[in-house]
Design brief:
The structure is a single chain. The chain has 186 residues and is mainly alpha-helical. The protein is built from nine helices and two strands. A hairpin with a 5-residue loop joins strand 1 (138-140) and strand 2. Helix 2 runs parallel beside helix 5 (72-87), helix 4 (57-67) runs antiparallel to helix 5 and helix 5 packs parallel to helix 8 (121-130). The longest helix is centred in the middle third of the chain and has 16 residues, at 72-87.
Amino acid sequence: MTARSTSLSPSTSATNNKKTTTSLWAGPTMLEHSCGILAAMALRSPTNANLILTHHGSTAITSAMAQNPHCVPVLRQGCLAIRNLVSRNKENIPKLLDGVYANDNLEHVLRDVAGKQQGSVDEAYAALRDLGLSAKLITIGDDGAAAPQSSVAMFGDTKPRFRPVFDESDDMEGRIQNHIDVSRTT
């Protein structure tokens, strides 16, 4: 009986399958899930976070994010993974920023790529914050202009501008009275 070798390596011995296998491993869906797995492994596990760093996982995460600048799921999972690498391992921060696992592209990817996508901005902010880097949330106004937030908005602090019914007038009492008057005449 011969032992059969199985491998999850992106390389394959069959020439005709090599391109298919390589594109599968480089695709955004696979990268999203790979970053997600690393994020889950590092979550609340300093030992796993150290192992991921030792095997240059942060470089793989940053590369996945840089290669897919418009794929929000990859950016979101990558930000979560970076954050989880340092959130309970503060000693990993200098390793990622200045030390042996430093990646010149890390801050750029978090700030200028993931931080500019609506679906990953909160995760990018959390990763930058936990890395000890300055980060400010911005608010996009009705005119599309960006303005820095002065503080974190808390629920109920500001009155929402939600209008359940589109109407040119904000005079709700007048509209109710008109409806009552019309109902009485009919």
